[in-house]
Amino acid sequence: MRARHVPSAAAAVAAAAKRRPGAAAAVAAAAIALFVVGCQKGEKAETGAPAGAKEIRITVDAVGYHPAEARAPGGKPVRLVLTRTADDACGEEFVVPSVGIKKKLPLNEPVAIDLTMPTAGKLAFMCGMDMMRGSIIAE
User: What is the DSSP string of 38-90?
Assistant: First the structure.
């Protein structure tokens, strides 16, 4: 992502410095913070995870899910981060039928899915065509 140039930030700092010298530092800090936030990758998968959630990263390619089986604490929040790396129609959709999740997976973009694990058993997932499958085992 290209950095965004904010031509008015320098002008705002200079104007604040003339009015109130202490305000210049505050305005400069705010401008720097906005610049840093604006330059970060905006991946939805990296923000807002539930507190204490275990993160499980899954890659989806033409042959399936990697890993196809994972483990997570039963009854606890989990964040799945799926990245589809192959332009294969089967991997375009991720489905967890037991909890009503159905998500499109754009090519090479991580997608976060937050859910709570069952207290025991497996949470099965599959592609939209039900050809590729996997599961998360509650421990």
Answer: HHS---GGGS-PPTTPEEEEEEEETTEEESSEEEE-TTSEEEEEEEE-S--GG
> Under 8 Å CB-to-CB from 7, ≥6 apart: which residues?
none
- Give the DSSP H/E element, type plus range, for residue 33: helix 21-39
pTM metric for this prediction = 0.65
d(CA 17, CA 27): 9
Instruction: Please return the burial class of 55, using the count of CB atoms within 10 Å of its CB with bins 0-12, 13-18 and 19+.
Output: middle
Q: pLDDT tens-digit profile of 42-66?
A: 334 456 777 889 999 999 999 999 9
Q: Are 95 and 101 in contact (CB under 8 A)?
A: yes
- Residue type, position 61, single letter: D
Please report, as a single letter, which amino acid is at residue 97: P
